[in-house]
Every structure is written in C-alpha cells, then in structure tokens.
Design brief:
Gyrase A, domain 2, 4-stranded antiparallel sheet, EC 6.1.1.19, RNA-binding, coiled coil, 4 domains, ATP-binding, cytoplasm, alpha/beta, Rossmann fold, 8% strand, protein biosynthesis
Length: 660
RNA sequence: GCGCCCAUAGCUCAGCUGGAUAGAGCAACGGACUUCUAAUCCGUAGGUCGAAGGUUCGAAUCCUUCUGGGCGUGCCA
C-alpha cells in the first residue's frame, strides 16, 4: 500500500489538461505534518498558479474539481494560500486493513526488477580482532540487503575480506618465532589471536618508540609557533587582523594539546610493554620485527611455499573467528570473496590499463591520472606490489562478468569517498560502467568525548567485548527481579538469557541504524539499552504487548479474520484510525530506505508506529471492548501491529521476543 | 594550499525532490497504575535552524560569502 503513489496517480490524471508537466506537480503530495490538515496535502496549486496566471486558490479549486478521489478520500479542502488537504476515507482505510490480514508481506509490493544488486559490506581484515569501526558497515549493509531482498530485488551480498595483507605476515612471523605447533593445532582460533596480538603489540611498540622523538620535536615546534603568535601585538586599528591572530593562537594551542595527548598515548603503550617482563624480553629479542613481518608478507605474495602453506592452514581458523561474530549478529553473506581471490588477476588489470593508455609510469609507480583529481590513482607501487585500487578494479570486473548486476553498493566509510570517486571514474573509462555504482558512505562512531572511539591506551575497542557489555546491561534490566515477578509462567534462566541477548544486540544495531548513515554519531551504551527513549527496547516491548493481548484473547490471525468477516471492520476511536494509517505506510518507509540507502527511515517509521500503538493501547482496551465488533477491529490492528513491528525489526536485523 | 562533509532545543539526534505554528527522545516540571506488561500514556517548559546576503508566493532545505569544526589529500586499506 502506497497512499502517496496512489494519490499522485490520481492527481497526475487530473493535471494532464492543465499542464504539460503533470508528473512534476503531482509529485508535490506528501503526508501532512499536522493531523488537523488531514492525512495528506497537495502543494501544487501555488507553483502551478504562476504558470497559469491564475490565483492559486482558483487553481486548487479547479484541480479539486477535476481529480477523482471519491473512493479514497473525503471531499478535499482548500486551505491557506492554496493547500489541498486530503483525508483518507475510513471505509477505504478499513478495506485496506482488511487486505493486510493474512498477507505475509504486510501490504508491501514486489519489484519486477530481476537484474541483481551486489552489496559489498563489512569487509574486515581477518586475523585482526574486529572492532567498533566494523559495526556500521556490517549493520547498515545487512539491513540494506534484507530490505532490498524483501522488496523483491535479487540481492547478492559479498564480504570483501582483507585476507591477503600484512596481518598474515604478522601471524606467520608469530607462528615461526613464538608458536607452539601442538598448542596451535589443538586450539587454533584463540592461539592465533594471541600470536597476532603478541606480534602486533611489538610492532606498535617499535613504532611508538620511533615516533616519540618526532612527536616531541613537533610539540616543540608547535609550542614555538604558538609562543611566536602570542608575542605579536595585534594592530588595534585592524579588528579583522586581531581576530585572525586570536584564531591562529587558538589553533596552534589546540595542535599542541592534540600532539601532547598523542605523546601520552604512545608513552603509555611503551610503558605497558616495558613493565611486562615477557613483552620486554620479546621487544629486545626482535628489534627489526616490523621489517621482518613485511618480508613474510612479501614472501607470501611471491608464492613462497612455506608461507603459502601456513596461510592456507590458518585462513579457515581466522574465518571461524570472524564468523563467530557474524553468527552472533545474525549476519550472512552469499559470497566471501576476499582480496586473495583476486590476487592472480591484478597483473592483468594493470596491463590492460597500460595498453588502453589509461595508465602511465611516474616515479617508478604505475599511475592513472584523472581529470579533477590532484593525486593519481596508483595501481602498482615502485616495488611492484599492487594496491587496493588495483584489487577494487579487478573485483569490479569480476562482478560484472560473474553477476551482471544492475547496481553495486559499496558500504564503506566516508573517508574513502575520494578513492571511490577515482575507482568509479576509471571504471567509466575502462568500459566497466554499464552498472550503477554507489558508494554507500557512512560516518564515524565517536566516543563520549566526540572523538573517534578508542580505549584509554589508544587502541580500538573490540567488537565482541562491546556486544558482551550490551548484553550484560540488557540482562540487568531485563532480569530485574521486580519485573520478573509479573510473569506467569515464571521466566526461566534460559529465556532470560535469550531475552538479554536479543535486547542487547538489538540495541546496538538499532542505535546505529537510527542515525542517518552519513552523520557521525556518539556511541552511548547506556542510552542504547535504556528502557526509555528512541530505542529498540521500546519497539520490542510494543511487539511483546501485542503478543500478550493475542495470547490472552486466545486468537490467532485466522480467528481474527473470521471475526472481521462476521462483524466487518470499522473505527470507533481516533487512535484506531491513526494506527491503521500508520500500518499502511510500511511500504513507503521501505521504499524510502531503498531510495537513499538509508535504514534510518525504517527506524523512524518503527518508532512512530510503536508510539502510535502505545497510545492506542492506552485508550482502546481490547479484551474489555464495548462490543464484539469493536473487539474484532482492535484485534485485527493488534495482530497487524505485531507483524509489522516484527517484520520491520527483522529487516533491520533486530529480533523480537514474545514477552519481556 | 586544494578537495569533501558537518553546524537544528540544555544533551543526543530526525527533518523526504523548498510548503502551513521546525519535530522526537533524554534531562526538568506537573499529572495518570486494585495494568490486555506504567519498559506505558497525557500535559508544561525549552529554538534568531552557526552568521550575513541572494533566489521566490514561501527557505532548516537551493545559491554565494563568512565563522567554527571534522575528514581526506602520490606509492596503507
């Protein structure tokens, strides 16, 4: 059901005789912001009046006269300068709600489109622990995939794993120097993680040690700059220059502060290693560990038998590690074609670029120079190694050959915008642009302080511990003994755990998806899991209430349909009508998600519908309804609300529980 | 230097291709429970939509300039 579309079609017909651009005016129909103006408003009379040279209210009257709406709407009203206010007829609403009963799709249509949409998302580096930065791509991509698939599109999800990079050099080095083959064979996943952390810690230690003098020097310079600026006396006659000087001083001081905080974090990292006897001994014994790791990586890429064998042996375990997180998040992929899959195709990509005259050698690197970009896209380094731009081009070509998609969505951080601008530009010149390429970019997850989220020591926060925290908090809330007393039969521990997991994981996903993807947002676990507010808990709770009512009434949806067939469906309270209208707007919410690739449209819709339901719940008693006819309508609304909320949450990747 | 993005209530955030009095949640204050789960609902208060111009019937939304902030910027991904 798509009211806006229906109304637009009707107006389109009526506008044909009045203008040669009926669709542009018909598109000026939207839901009202204030219910006193009805349900929908058409704002086309004002702009149209100028074209026709007639007063807008006269134009509105003419349009109202021409448009055929009597089966759908009450008589339109003309208000203010020429707004046409539309109110959907109760009989039409009732008819549509009747149509939703028994419809598993909740009134949402299916597209005819058959050409696939490839969705590239998550794409972590295996062997490295997943961190908070991976939430967004994973959760947004999964939600888009679920939503598009439900809308009828042939979706193909692909997790473009980083499975061929330095992190394997790290593990291989760790295995060769610190690994115990027996222990690794016995318990590979945690052992490999341990090896990764051990070696990576040493590399970071070395980097930190190397950086400290640079940073100290930089602080000196920045301090001197600041002091120099402060010593200048502003010209009192030139207010603008004085202001600019003040600004420069503030900026210089900020720079000093930021460098100092970086220095502090480096020092704490160094102190951490040196305080631990094992780490300190490691650090002393492996002074060139960073270079050695790069050598192990290079050997792997060159096909060194030993390293290749280790890579083949370890990769499945590294995948197990990330799959554990995906299982917990309930995220699946159709394909997991990592960087290693494209390794053999990279040379060919570079050759083709060169033979087509797109690439040229500059400073020993193979570059593609593009109009409108200062820096070239480098596809092969001086040392012969390929870069991610090369892999992305190879991946694009493979996807076109293999899947013949209409669209490819890249759910990747906004900071890579320029990279994708270049990739898309080259794709055009490379003959790979017979497809809509979209960088579905997203902002950064920030901590409480408004800076990118990190632990005190400066490292990124692990994703799994974050999920654990969320579930722990959800548990204390969900398993509050006072609340548990309300349940009959009592809630066993297993059910409590299930509820805590569903609420905790859902809270993180829902909060992430609730923000527009392009904006940065502050991560606040307390707010996400809170009982009050714009949270998944609120929607999940609303769902649980619908199920409680249906259970008490001992009615399945089929029983409700039978009741409606006997009594009909009609509204006796404004809250019923408002809820009905909201339920029928589900399709519009899903199409809005598709349009901007922005799941927050669905989050907003679900919160609004849950809120409307809460009001309905408050003012319209179901079991004590005044008559069986009224009860039939209310039961229908309750059953449909339950299904819409459940389905909507499912498309966000969020689960529900029957009671909480 | 150049490029991209952002600035909306005390706080966290919405605001669709320009529409009527700019919304929600949190926090604050005042109400409603012998509950179909009060994890709820109702009400009050809170805004010069960073600033200034412009486009027009009409601007948070489009354009220009300015201010403040973030990110990116030739061999990491």
């Amino acid at each position: 059901m798509h009211f806006t579309q229906l109304l637009q079609d009707r107006f389109h017909e009526a506008l044909k005789p009045l203008t040669d651009a009926p669709e542009s005016f018909a598109s000026m129909i939207r839901p009202t912001t204030d219910p006193k103006h009805g349900d929908y408003q058409a704002n086309l009379a004002m702009p149209l009046s100028k074209k026709l040279g007639k007063p807008p209210r006269d134009v509105a009257a003419a349009v109202v006269e021409a448009v055929k709406l009597d089966d759908v709407c009450e008589t339109p009203e003309i208000a203010g300068p020429g707004f046409i206010n539309l109110k959907v007829k109760d009989s039409f609403l009732a008819e549509q709600i009747r149509g939703l009963l028994g419809d598993a799709r909740c009134g949402v249509g299916k597209t005819d489109s058959t050409q696939p949409i490839v969705i590239d998302f998550s794409s972590p580096n295996v062997a490295k622990p997943m961190h908070v930065g991976h939430i967004r791509s994973t959760v947004i991509g999964d939600s888009l995939a679920r939503t598009l698939k439900f809308l009828g599109y042939h979706t193909i999800t692909d997790n473009h794993l980083g499975d061929w990079g330095t992190q394997f050099g790290i593990i291989i080095y760790g295995y060769k120097h610190f690994g115990d083959p027996e222990v690794v064979a016995k318990d590979p996943v945690p052992e490999l993680s341990k090896l990764y952390r051990r070696v990576n810690g040493l590399i970071e230690y070395r980097k930190a040690v190397a950086w400290v003098p640079d940073i100290e020097q930089a602080i000196e310079t920045a301090r001197a700059d600041a002091a120099d600026l402060e010593s200048q006396t502003p010209d009192p006659a030139d207010a603008k220059a004085a202001k600019k000087l003040k600004k420069s001083i503030a900026s210089a001081n900020r720079r000093v502060e930021s460098l100092q905080s970086e220095l502090e974090s480096l020092r704490s990292k160094i102190a951490g290693v040196e305080a631990d006897p094992t780490s300190a001994a490691d650090a002393a014994a492996h002074p060139d560990i960073d270079k050695a790791v790069l050598q192990e990586t290079a050997k792997l890429h060159q096909g060194d038998a030993e390293n290749l064998e280790l890579w083949k042996k370890f990769l499945p375990f590294c995948k197990d590690e990330i799959n554990r997180v995906y299982d917990r998040l309930d995220v699946q992929f159709d394909h997991t074609l990592g960087e290693s899959f494209y390794h053999s195709m990279l040379g060919g990509v570079v050759e083709q670029l060169e033979s087509k005259g797109l690439a040229s050698t500059s400073d020993g690197a193979v570059c593609v120079f593009l109009d409108g970009f200062d820096a070239p896209m480098i596809v092969r380094k001086q040392d012969g190694a390929f870069l991610y731009a090369t892999t992305d081009l190879a991946t694009l070509r493979y996807r076109l050959d293999e899947f013949n998609p209409a669209e490819i969505l890249y759910v990747v951080d906004s900071r890579q915008s320029e990279h994708f601008d270049k990739i898309f530009a080259v794709a055009g010149e490379f003959g790979l642009a017979e497809v809509k390429l979209v960088h579905v970019n997203f902002g950064t997850v920030l901590g409480e302080d408004g800076k990118p989220m990190k632990t005190r020591s400066g490292s990124l926060i692990g994703l799994e511990s974050l999920l654990d925290d969320a579930v722990d908090r959800a548990r204390t809330v969900v398993c509050d003994p006072q609340r548990l007393e309300n349940f009959d039969p009592p809630m066993e521990v297993a059910e409590q755990e299930m509820v805590a997991e569903t609420v905790g994981i859902g809270a993180i996903k829902f909060a992430d998806l609730g923000h527009h993807r392009t904006s940065d947002y502050r991560f606040n676990l307390d707010k996400m899991v809170a009982l009050e507010g714009n949270t998944s808990t609120y929607v999940q709770y609303s769902y649980a209430r619908t199920q409680a009512i249906l259970q008490r009434a001992e009615k399945a949806e089929s029983d409700v349909i039978a009741m409606i067939d006997t009594h009909g469906l009609s509204f006796s309270h404004v809250a019923e009508r408002t809820l009905a209208l909201s339920l029928l707007r589900f399709e519009e919410a899903l199409l809005a998600v598709h349009k901007d690739y922005a799941p927050n449209a669905l989050v907003d819709y679900l919160l609004d519908t849950a809120r409307v339901y809460s009001r309905f719940n408050d003012s319209c008693h179901v079991l004590k309804a005044e008559s069986e006819a009224i009860q039939a309508t209310r039961l229908a609304l309750v059953a449909l609300t339950g299904r819409v909320l459940q389905l909507g949450l499912r498309l966000l990747g969020v689960g529900v529980v029957p009671r909480m």
